Amino acid sequence: MRKAAARTELTRNTAAQGYRGAMTHAFLSNDWMDAARAIREKYADQVPEIPTVIKINLSIVDVPFDDHTVNAFFDTSSGGLQLELGELDDADATITTDYETAQALFVEQDQTIAMQSFMAGKIKVQGDMMKMMAMQTAIPSNEFTDAIAEEIKSITA
Which of 45, 122, 140, 155 sits between 20 and 30 A of 148, alpha carbons compared? Predict the structure, then answer.
């Protein structure tokens, strides 16, 4: 019980100190990517290393800005979670989904929406399905990863 309360308090304090009144940005916009990267870098030495190498390209369609499609990728080969714009040549898989679903998955971390969207055909996977599924369990969690998630939610419009 004490750990959960301490984690909640750390998350509240960190979010309040670092991002109270912070600007919000459209998910996956250049400004959002810069702000999210800064949040991850702030905690880089306080989060557990990711032991599994997973490289996944994302093709996000129906984006309300730019050309209506954003290409991005997740890469854990450095031991940390890297989310950047662009594509990897050696990706294990490519996930294609719409903007709203991607935001629910990667910002809100709503696993119910993930399952419902996959079953409804809103999430398409090409490549190694096992690597994509491994992302759910390969990324360790602690109070700092929780704080990162909360801060990223707070900067997302």
Answer: 122
pTM summary value: 0.81
Q: If DSSP codes are grouped into helix, strand and coil, which group holds residue 29? A: coil
Long-range contacts, 15-23 (Cβ 8 Å, 24+): 15/147, 15/150, 15/151, 15/154, 18/42, 18/151, 19/151, 19/154, 19/155, 22/154, 22/155, 23/155
Domains and CATH numbers, the chain: 1-48+141-157 (no CATH), 50-140 (3.30.1050.10)
State whether residue 13 is helix, strand or coil.
helix
Rounded distance between C-alpha atoms, residue 26 and residue 22, angstroms = 13
In angstroms, how far apart are the furthest CA atoms of the chain?
A: 48
Local confidence band at 8 (pLDDT 50, 70, 90 cut-offs): very low
Q: Is the pLDDT of residue 146 over 80?
A: yes
